[in-house]
């Protein structure tokens, strides 16, 4: 599996993957994450800003994620409750990670890509997203506390440095 920059032409493939990821969340008991989110407009904004990436199995798009890196790529991470970040160094962040049922290993591929760009990665996830939390813990991410996203809802925050 490999990663490439997403293009606007990928939208027709990305959005069904997001819908399938949402359905998988519901099947695992996560009933409130990604209600009406992320929209096609948000994904297109990711792509136009150079933050949208697709995972490919051969030439088939099987996953999507947003990756940003730098001094402060996510202002929602400025305040953390119930803990602290591992460091204050520049970091990368993955958002809107979506995979369907066509391929396994999309989360690992996405995070491997992020770590190939920067050795310090933060991520947040919905408290009900147990599969993602399990992935993060299994792959060496430390739970750091709670952050709040733009709509005011809490997210469990994790970080890993290599």
Description:
The chain has 162 residues and is an alpha+beta fold. It has helices at 11-27, 40-48, 106-117, 130-138; strands at 2-5, 52-57, 60-70, 91-99, 120-125, 142-148, 154-161. The radius of gyration is 15 Å and the shape is globular.
Quick synopsis:
This protein has 162 residues and is of the alpha+beta class. It contains 4 helices and 7 strands.
The helicity comes to: 25-40%
The biggest beta sheet reads: 7 strands, mixed
* Helix-strand topology string: EHHEEEHEHEE
Unreliable runs: none
* Helix-strand makeup class: alpha+beta
Mean pLDDT: 95
| Outline | globular
CATH architecture: 3-Layer(aba) Sandwich
Write out the strand line-up for the largest beta sheet, numbering strands in chain order. Answer: 1-2-3-4-5-7-6
Could you say what the CATH topology is called? Aminopeptidase
Radius of gyration: 15 Å
CATH class: Alpha Beta
Q: What's the total number of strands?
A: 7
Please count the helical segments: 4
Strand proportion, as a percent range, falls in: 25-35%
Domain N-acetyltransferase: 1-162
Enzyme class: transferase
EC number: 2.-.-.-
GO molecular function: transferase activity
